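If your schedule permits, I should be very grateful for your opinion on a structural question. I would ask you to consider whether the tokens describe a fold that such a sequence might reasonably adopt. Thank you for your consideration; the sequence and its tokens are set out here.
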Amino acid sequence: MHFKPKDIRGLTFRRRLFGYRAGDVKDFMRHVVEDYETYQVKESEIVVCQDEIVQLKQIIQTQEETNKTLNNTIQQLNKENERLQVFEAEIQELEKMKELAQKTADVVQTEAKLLLEEAKQQKDKLIQEAEAIKMNQLLNLQIELGELVNEKDQLNHQLASKKTEYFELELQYEDMVATKDRVSKEAQVLKQEFLSLRSKLIQKYAEGLDEFIEENQLLNQPTTDESTSNVMKLTSKRIG
């Protein structure tokens, strides 16, 4: 059972015969109340201290996180500083390159002016040479044109001559066509005569061959008056 100081202060005891001395009990209770009051104050202070400790822990944790963030930030700043140093070095190199480029540009500009002057002189020279070449070419073209006109006249003359030759050849061709037709007709007549003569010769050859075979057969037979008479007849017939 927990007592509060006011509960202890208002506490009363029943009296009995030969009980405790009231003064001692009151002194004891007063001391107990004082101790309880002191204890409550200490307890309140402890609670406050605990709250403060929790707050301090939170503050410390926040501070640690802040320190960690600051450390990271410092590291990043160091890296950025290194980058800035590199960037400054690059800027210095660029400045040097810029100065060198400016010097080079000045030299190039000077050389460009000289080249322009030289190019202008060469241009004037080339224009003069081109004009001279143009005049020579015009003269050559006029000469070639005259030659072409002469060649044209010659070709016209040759063309007229070729036309005359063509007409003559055309007449010759017509004569040759007529001659061809005449020769073709004569060839047809000769062909007919040749075929007729050939038929006669074949017929005569066949008759002579039959007589020769018959005579040969008679000669191969035994000799008799009749066979001799037949051979003489065939011989006289072939001779006749």
The mean pLDDT is 81. The two ends are 192 Å apart (CA to CA). The CA atoms of residues 1 and 164 lie 161 Å apart.
